[in-house]
Amino acid sequence: MRRDADHEGAHGKDRVRARDGDRRGHGPSRRPAAAFLLVLLLPALLPALLLGTATPASAHAVLRATDPADGTLLSTAPRHVTLTFTESVGLLTDSFRVYDPGNRRLRTGPAGHAAGRSDTARVTLPARLATGTYTVAWRVVSADSHPVSGALTFSVGKRTAAPAALPRERPENGATTALHTIARYLAYLSLALLLGAAAFVAYCRPPTTAHLRIPAVAAAVTLVASTLAVYLLRAPYEEAASPTTAFSLSALTHTATTRPGRLLLLRLALLLLAAAAATLLRTRRVRLPRRVTLAAATVLAVALALTWSASDHAAAGIQVPVAIVSSTLHLLATAAWLGGLAALLWTLRHAPRTAAALPASVPARFSRLAFTSVVVLVVTGVYQSWRGLGSWQALTGTTYGRTLLAKLAAVTALLLAAACSRAWTARLTRPAQAAVRARVPEPATGPALREPPPEPPPVPPLRLLRRSVLLETVAAALVLALTTLLTSTVPGRAATESAQPAPSTATGVQTASVLTIPFDTGAPGGHGKVQITLDPGRVGTNSLQAVIYGPDGGLATVPELRVTLTLPARRLGPLDTRLTDRGGYWSAPAFTVPLPGTWTVRATVRVSDLDQVTVSAPVRVTR
């Protein structure tokens, strides 16, 4: 009888396998490898997305005010040039370059901070300055480790025509920026894979972890290499220099004195210490208690996450301590979800073709882990979005807000794929529960009355679960790419603050309103910005100057520029300022503004015989 029962049981198993095979078609063993190849190539392809969408010199410290103000006419020469930013800034050895009216660089004192103000940068000017227009090119490093640069002009006694070869803002080195962006993305990706794999093993408890050893080691090696690359590229990235200068002794020592450099060194030390401890325990075959191992891994994960949060957005702005805690939790939850997702995908890929070999508790536990991570991500993400945006208008009116919307769309796609995975995980757990119930012994009622146990329901194939997890992984890689872009974009709050003009505080300076309006005709090379200075910005006689900056940030000439003012509240205008081309800039030396209020400045820029565009911006005129 036992032989017959065993024979019948074997036939039952064959029938279940046959039905599984029919539903799979050719079976997962013949599944195309293109999807998995895409997952392998995606981390290498996404840096191209980052480089294609990121803008040069992206930074988070935004210039709030200058003293002297940009475009101001001074009656006496100033002794200092002081810049005030939205957050604290670090100074470089060449933070200021000042050029006289003849485009010759002046010898200035070393750059420093104003007394007790880490959010300022100041340079001392020579005692005697000739009459004319001076240009100041500057570059500093924001508190969240990103460099920011720009230029301004001021005039002493009278304004003079800009020289033909006026110095521009310091251009970024394309190779350095590209390498730095790729290294930062790989660091994010490898951290998520490493911590996520550890969380997957600790919480989900797969029956075997041998298949995860090589990906975990690869992630750890990549994290060490990318961190070292970011450290080497810090000085060239800050100075907009060539990557070949990365190995100079001065560059290495300078980076070690900065907060981002010290945090990178701390990250390297933590990784090397963990690697040494793991190697020592493995060679001596020492097995620590599970609680000790989990505690040490948790401390290491939090310390690694802090090396990111203490040097990015959270390190500057409002509520810094709360922001650092939120950013750390956000990064850990991201790693647990996305890195654990990759570990689950790798486990499913290497599992046998039936669910019997992979306990249903593994995907079920990961489903709970992912749900908890999503809750943490939502709470911390809402806080960080509020902190970074500052207003609803910044959500659509700034690059940071639009990038955040793109990330939210990618996260939504990720959640939809996760919902499919949860549904298939539930399908996998039901047969396992039914099998447990079937193994419960029933009371003997005699051979004649005993019925054969019911055949267990068909086990859903793992193919659909693999596909949904694969989609999750693709969406997760896109989320990481957009996260890297967000860390290289000016927050909406800072961008909004920088748009609010602040009057100059220098002694003897006539207050002036300075507007910078971007334009784009739609033609190749037909974009740039027009800078308009209304001096003194009060009712009565004013002078108006306008300068055109081309696509490369340098001064550009256009065949025609027309500027008008309109006061919508009084239905007054448009008043034509009748600008005259002065050979490098446009000027209306005497223009009357009759009433106070918020005027609309409209500038029509013609860049060729066929291409022109009209742009506008508000300006406040006082009594």
Helix and strand composition category: alpha+beta
Terminus-to-terminus distance: 108 Å
Mean pLDDT metric: 76
Shape: elongated
Helix content: 40-55%
Radius of gyration (Å): 32 Å
By DSSP, the count of extended strands is 18
What's the domain count? 4
Largest sheet: 5 strands, mixed
Strand content: 15-25%
Structural write-up:
The protein is an alpha+beta fold and 623 residues long. It has four domains: 63-171, Immunoglobulin-like; 172-350; 356-368 and 389-440 and 456-509, no CATH class; 512-621, Immunoglobulins (Immunoglobulin-like, Sandwich). It is built from 13 helices and 18 strands. Strands 2, 4, 5, 8 and 9 form a five-stranded mixed β-sheet that branches. Helix 11 runs antiparallel to helix 12 (463-486). The longest helix is centred in the last third of the chain and has 40 residues, at 399-438. The radius of gyration is 32 Å and the shape is elongated. It starts with a helix and ends with a strand. Residues 1-59, 164-169, 444-450, 455-460 and 498-510 have low confidence and may be disordered.
Summarize the structure.
This protein is α+β, with helices and mostly antiparallel strands and 623 residues long.
Features:
five-stranded mixed sheet; Immunoglobulin-like; disordered N terminus; 18 strands; elongated; 4 domains; copper; signal; alpha+beta; 623 residues
